[in-house]
């Protein structure tokens, strides 16, 4: 952006322009320095310039304005008395100029000119300037009779008054909810949504009109949108992950300047965040990859927010993000700087993986009780209510109770929903990330696979008719033992997720704080629960694997028998229990001092000469055996 400080000679353009350039950290230029020698001679002799004299000078300035803007902007002090002069100055780029008009009474300016020494404009020409002056009805108008410090403050106030402090792009369900949350907390907001004929028309304008009680300005033109934001700009993207994010970023770059900030608030892959950081750094633009959890309601009332990337950039917008976030039990914001690169979106990905596991656990418990234990939805809701009251409260358990109680007429609505689970990809990403890190992700991976199996509806229907002896057998479900299984598998599911985060922190040098991550997940997000609040203090005492914490060891030990019997009886009755059984297998593997892996190593050496290590020799040594001899 080029800020042109204009007005008659002696009004203070140079003084104010230099102060403004220093405050904005951009170069200052004085239009008088670009006058042709013949113009300077003419003015020094007391003759006013005519329009023919000024035109070459204005053209030189207009070319420089384009160049200065391309190099990061600047402040230009220029008389620009007539509208025709101002049009000429921005003739090559209308979008990059912001006008600051300094005005004062003739006597005030005359007094200043009389005191000025060494200036080529004779003060007697001042009247001709006031006659030529055409006061615009646009730009920032400032009373120049005050001291320069006061003038600078007034310019900044009016710049802020006329511009939005924060921007948001993408008015889908989450985007609209976050926009209302942001504006509702007192932030002046600019929103933009693309125009798609017959599909997305005037979305931003309509959103502004329907929320006229809030400080929201809607735009459907990116150029005008960028001009309506305070510098440096801060823009939150709420668009679909993947190529749409890159397309919006590429479209935005020509309208942005060094120091501006883009925040990606979607479920983007953490590695893409690193690529976008590096790409935007070339343009001098900051980038934050930010996980947001809480769904539509959380976005509106207070989500859990997980920003990462540029810490300096985060600190610039932290007051906005923290204001809209949920609050923990102590009133602290459920928003905290996570770490560098894409660490914020990595932990959001693992959050979603834990969420997949939690949802599948509840679904399996429901399936066992409903179709193998002959319990009605109302009875299952009562069981869940009892669990909720006994220290197992969680958001997902709460909504499951509501789902079980919901009826459509005389029928339970749940029974009318097709049993094919959808997903958006973050669960699968978690599995891939764990494979790259070399960490087991049993419960989370099996929750993802359960959704894939659910999609095989036609095959499942055929299978149910051909394997009649293996499914839907009635069993006597022991509720206390089922509760033991539920307690245990939830601990294991969380332990797996946090262990993956810890490994990523080590391998990627992120230095993540597990306790702080657990804290911002205690409210606003989908996996908030009483157990998550407990994890805040557990991780404060130790970052060791959760299953090794003495309190957790005692809890799993006391519930182990009930867990094993529940899984065994459920499988014997033909109930599919992928996550409950996966969690049990993980725990049994985790506590096995002697695993079966020595057989695997022997097999690998047999067919591939991959070698093996011996327990009776130093581990630095490797061995190979000819197994047929």
TrEMBL record:
Q: Name one Pfam family in it.
A: NAD_binding_2
EC number in record: 1.1.1.44
Query: Subunit info?
Result: Homodimer.
What is the name attached to this protein's record? 6-phosphogluconate dehydrogenase, decarboxylating
Q: Which domain of life is it from?
A: Bacteria
| Top-level taxonomy | Bacteria, Pseudomonadati, Bacteroidota, Flavobacteriia, Flavobacteriales
Sequence similarity: Belongs to the 6-phosphogluconate dehydrogenase family.
Domain 6-phosphogluconate dehydrogenase C-terminal, chain residue ranges per copy: 344-628
A Gene Ontology molecular function term of the record: phosphogluconate dehydrogenase (decarboxylating) activity
Could you list this entry's UniProt keywords, alphabetically sorted: ATP-binding, Gluconate utilization, Kinase, NADP, Nucleotide-binding, Oxidoreductase, Pentose shunt, Transferase
Q: Where does this protein act, in terms of pathway?
A: Carbohydrate acid metabolism; Carbohydrate degradation; pentose phosphate pathway; D-ribulose 5-phosphate from D-glucose 6-phosphate (oxidative stage): step 3/3
Q: Which PROSITE patterns match?
A: 6PGD
Q: Provide the reaction this enzyme catalyses.
A: 6-phospho-D-gluconate + NADP(+) = D-ribulose 5-phosphate + CO2 + NADPH; D-gluconate + ATP = 6-phospho-D-gluconate + ADP + H(+)
Q: What does this protein do?
A: Catalyzes the oxidative decarboxylation of 6-phosphogluconate to ribulose 5-phosphate and CO(2), with concomitant reduction of NADP to NADPH.
């Amino acid at each position: 952006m080029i800020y042109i400080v204009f007005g008659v000679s002696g009004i203070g353009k140079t003084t104010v322009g230099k102060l403004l350039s220093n405050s904005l950290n951009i170069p200052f230029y004085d239009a008088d320095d670009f006058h042709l020698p013949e113009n300077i001679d003419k003015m020094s002799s007391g003759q006013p310039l005519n329009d023919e004299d000024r035109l070459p000078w204005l053209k030189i300035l207009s070319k420089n304005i384009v160049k200065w803007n391309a190099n990061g902007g600047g402040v230009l002090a220029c008389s620009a008395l007539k509208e025709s002069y101002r049009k000429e100055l921005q003739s090559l780029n209308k979008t990059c100029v912001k006008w600051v008009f300094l005005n004062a009474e003739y006597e005030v300016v005359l007094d200043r000119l009389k005191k000025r020494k060494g200036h080529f404009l004779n003060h007697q020409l001042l009247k001709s300037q006031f006659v030529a002056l055409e006061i615009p009805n646009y730009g920032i108008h400032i009373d120049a009779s005050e001291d320069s410090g006061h003038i600078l403050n007034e310019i900044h106030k009016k710049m802020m008054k006329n511009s939005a402090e924060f921007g948001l792009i993408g008015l889908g369900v989450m985007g609209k909810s976050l926009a209302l949350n942001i504006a509702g907390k007192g932030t002046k907001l600019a929103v933009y949504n693309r125009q798609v004929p017959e599909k997305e028309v005037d979305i931003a304008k309509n959103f502004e009109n329907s929320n006229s009680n809030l400080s929201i300005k809607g735009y459907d033109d990116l150029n005008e949108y960028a001009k309506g934001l305070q510098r440096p700009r801060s823009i939150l993207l709420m668009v679909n992950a993947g190529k749409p994010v890159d397309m919006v970023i590429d479209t935005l770059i020509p309208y942005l300047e060094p120091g501006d900030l883009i925040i990606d608030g979607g479920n983007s892959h953490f590695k893409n965040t690193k690529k976008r950081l590096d790409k935007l750094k070339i343009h001098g633009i900051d980038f934050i990859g930010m996980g947001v959890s809480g769904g539509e309601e959380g976005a509106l009332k207070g989500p859990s927010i997980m920003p990462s990337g540029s810490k300096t950039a985060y600190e610039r917008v932290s007051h906005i993000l923290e204001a809209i976030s949920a609050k923990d039990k102590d009133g602290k914001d459920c928003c905290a700087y996570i770490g560098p690169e894409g660490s914020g979106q990595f932990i959001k990905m693992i959050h979603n993986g834990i969420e997949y596991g939690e949802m599948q656990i509840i679904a399996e418990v429901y399936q066992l009780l409903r179709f193998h234990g002959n319990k009605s939805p109302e009875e299952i809701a009562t069981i869940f209510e009892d669990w909720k009251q006994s220290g197992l409260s969680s958001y997902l358990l709460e909504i499951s109770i509501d789902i079980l109680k919901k009826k459509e007429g005389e029928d339970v609505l749940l029974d009318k929903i097709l049993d094919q689970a959808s997903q958006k990809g973050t669960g699968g990403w978690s599995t891939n990330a764990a494979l790259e890190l070399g960490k087991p992700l049993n419960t989370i991976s099996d929750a993802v696979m359960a959704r894939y199996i659910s999609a095989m509806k036609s095959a499942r229907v055929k299978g149910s008719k051909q394997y009649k002896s293996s499914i839907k057998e009635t069993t006597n479900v022991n509720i206390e033992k089922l509760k033991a299984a539920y307690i245990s598998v939830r601990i294991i599911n969380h332990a797996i997720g946090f262990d993956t985060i810890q490994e990523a922190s080590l391998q990627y040098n992120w230095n993540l704080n597990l306790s702080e991550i657990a804290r911002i997940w205690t409210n606003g997000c989908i996996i908030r629960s009483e157990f998550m609040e407990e994890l805040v203090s557990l991780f404060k005492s130790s970052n060791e694997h959760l299953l090794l914490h003495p309190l957790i060891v005692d809890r799993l030990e006391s519930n182990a028998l009930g867990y094993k019997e529940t899984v065994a009886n459920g499988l014997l009755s033909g109930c599919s229990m992928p996550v409950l059984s996966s969690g049990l297998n993980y725990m049994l593997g985790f506590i096995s001092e002697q695993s079966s892996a020595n057989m695997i190593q022997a097999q690998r050496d047999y067919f591939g000469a991959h070698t093996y290590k011996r327990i009776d020799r130093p581990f630095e040594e490797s061995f190979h055996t000819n197994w047929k001899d």
